[in-house]
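Collaborator request, handled under Task 6.
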Amino acid sequence: MKETHPETIVDDKVAHLERLLTVKQLQINSLLEVSQAINNNFSTSALFRIYEFILRAQMGIQRLLVFIKNDKWDCVCNSGVSDSFREINVDIDLSSFRNIATINVSRNEKLKEFDVIIPVLHKDTPLAYVLIGDLKTDDNDSLEEKLKFIQTITNIVIVAVENKKLFNNQIQQEVMRKELEFAAKMQSMLIPSDLPNNSVIEMASVYLPHHDIGGDYYDCLEISETELLFCIGDISGKGIAAALLMANFQANLRGEVSKLDNLGEFVQYLNVKVNQITKGEKFITLFIGVYNSETRILRYVNAGHNPPLLLKDGAITELDKGCTLLGMFEALPVMRIGKERIPEGGVLINYTDGLIDFENGKGEYFSQERLESFLISNGELKMEDFNKGLLKYVSDFKGEGLFIDDITILSCRFF
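Structure tokens returned to the collaborator:
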């Protein structure tokens, strides 16, 4: 038997250690390359191209498949695999794997091309799955060591991708916040700040959007020396879409009000415009009235809105004549014009449903009856004081409960 010279044994060990050192140096260089790519804010696709190159060229992996969780599971890397990988359902086929594991093909034929699976989880929530096939092994690095390195570099890449998504989400949220702020400012410019307060009529308003941008709307404008138009409405939906519809609606109303000869035809026109804009997907409830200070006649149309309450001679009258809400039909099928003679001192309260459609901690709804009772008891107040008192009354009734909708009040006293 041939003896091995001690110096040869030492040389072999040194050579083996040098090869191990080379392998570890390559791995460190790979981690450095990935870290630099992350620091330089490489795109997700670029990161995975580097990742794929490292695993194929330096780790000897022949087949590689990576799924990451976005809104759904997406395959971001597939190399050396057949198109059959598209049959893999991540939630069904991979979700049971919580740790690095060898794949038993007999249990799942869809995974037959792969030997090992590496799940990446955050607080027990899966972020990614890596499938590896034909992983080459040699004397320079054990299978266990290779898998540890693959897991390490995979975690680094996946965490970087997750951080990138979080950062992008933060940017999008900041952009959205600024857009909402801008839209809220634009919307506030559409709401009239100066209301009539003269020898003919005293008006006061409250506008409290539930969020930054509300779906309520009110307006007031003189259309002649003796006639005043005012309206209040509630636009379906919230946010920027509601604000845009509100702006468009106001533009149509104000742009055509000079041609107002027939109130019914005017409301039909507004309905057509709403329908054209929203294609029947959004609606507007609207109360619109035209008051003539000479005749003391209020002509109005109530298009599916909460009936304003008219206090005259100590009694309440609901202004409910009109039509269905705007935007539901191409042409309003029924149109009734309401008329009320307003006596001196008459008070009209216009409001949106957020004022009454809520319940307190006892499960009691505020209801229109409570609003009527408050109006009868406090109708002599100045309109601004009336609104403040009404809000306090509503808030006291609500208690610690939350309002669930916008609140708008437009109060009018006729002299």
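The cover message to the collaborator said: "DSSP finds eight helices and 16 strands in the chain. Residues 6-163 form a domain with the Beta-Lactamase fold (CATH 3.30.450.40). Please let us know whether this matches your experimental observations."
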